[in-house]
Write a structure and sequence with these properties.
Elements lengths: L7 H32 L3 H5 L13 H6 L5 H29 L8 H9 L8 H10 L17 H13 L2 H9 L4 H12 L1 H17 L2 H6 L8 H10 L1 H11 L15 H32 L6
Helix pairs in contact: 1-14, 4-7, 4-10, 4-12, 8-9, 10-14, 12-14, 13-14
């Protein structure tokens, strides 16, 4: 194997590039770090804004109190359910439609593809959308979180582009051996499409987990509230919520000390960490698929 030695200029450029990207990564991570250290610092110090780089008087009572908030666990289950089910169906539909739209023998392929893609550019607005959802009996219905997101034109375009970048000989060879369209899809293309499907899964999961507007407009039953909607309400009502938690803890002298007494800042930051943490854990797992899925098909020739 031939080895190459980097010159002085190349080494300097490499050091400069790694330094710049490291600084950029620190800038991106610092807001999350700041929120986390404020949640485990003394609440009176955090409320004054005196926590900068290191936590002060570390405690974890904030998380204990927030987990006791009524409806939080039910909302977490709703968000988890819509994320898992919605992401699975979205990935499945995107994979199948993206594959079918790449098949030249599909009936009226161009028409159906354009019919699907055109919905990306035209939106009737919130009121017609709400009236449509209500006429379909999707208000106060868990399916309102799932059905509208199954067909996602942007994800279909990603999969279609990926499929078209793969060698056509793979599909042709399978067809010559007698494989039908569904066999080619499940046994040939699905394994090949893992990078782009992982990318779609990340996008879909983040969209589902972070969504709260559909809950705001369609749900009046508190049993169907999502975690993000609960967060939205808690941020808007953080002051009254901190008072309620402090009253619940009033029986214990330790819990009502200034260090652990809930404040508006502690409530907001603690709930933010709880909601954001699952998404932060997902990205490292799918990162290698994410990069490969986005890049493949972007450059041809």
């Amino acid at each position: 194997m031939r080895t190459y030695r980097l010159g002085t200029t190349d080494k300097l450029i490499s050091v400069l590039v790694y330094t710049l990207f490291s600084l950029f990564a620190l800038v991106c991570l610092f807001p999350f770090y700041t929120i986390i250290i404020n949640t485990i610092s003394a609440n009176d110090i955090s409320a004054r804004g005196d926590v900068s780089f290191f936590p002060k008087h570390i405690h974890f009572q904030n998380y204990v109190d927030v987990f006791k908030i009524p409806g939080l666990w039910d909302a977490a289950l709703i968000s988890l359910g819509r994320t898992v089910i919605g992401t699975t169906l979205t990935v499945g539909a995107s994979a199948f439609l993206g594959f079918m739209f790449s098949q030249e023998d599909m009936w009226k392929r161009k028409f159906w593809y354009r019919f699907t893609v055109i919905t990306m550019f035209f939106n009737a607005g919130i009121i017609p959308w709400y009236l449509t959802m209500r006429s379909l009996h999707l208000t106060n219905n868990f399916l309102a979180y799932i059905l509208p997101t199954i067909v996602a034109p942007f994800f279909i375009i990603l999969v279609k582009t990926f499929v078209e970048s793969t060698p056509k000989e793979l599909q042709q060879a399978a067809s010559i051996d007698g494989a039908g369209t569904m066999t080619v899809f499940f046994r040939i293309m699905l394994p090949i499409c893992k990078p782009i499907l992982a990318t779609v899964a990340i996008f879909a999961a983040v969209d589902q987990w972070n969504s709260f507007q559909d809950t705001l407009l369609l749900m009046t039953d508190s049993k169907l509230y999502s975690l993000q909607f609960i967060l939205y309400n808690y941020i808007n009502q953080a002051s009254s919520l901190s008072t309620m938690v402090n009253l619940q803890n009033a029986g214990s002298t330790a819990l009502t000390s200034l260090a652990t007494k809930q404040t508006t800042t502690s409530i907001r930051m603690t709930v933010t960490v709880i909601v954001v943490a699952p998404i932060l854990l997902i990205y490292p797992i799918f990162q290698r698929f994410f990069v490969k899925g986005i890049m493949i098909g972007a450059v041809k020739g």
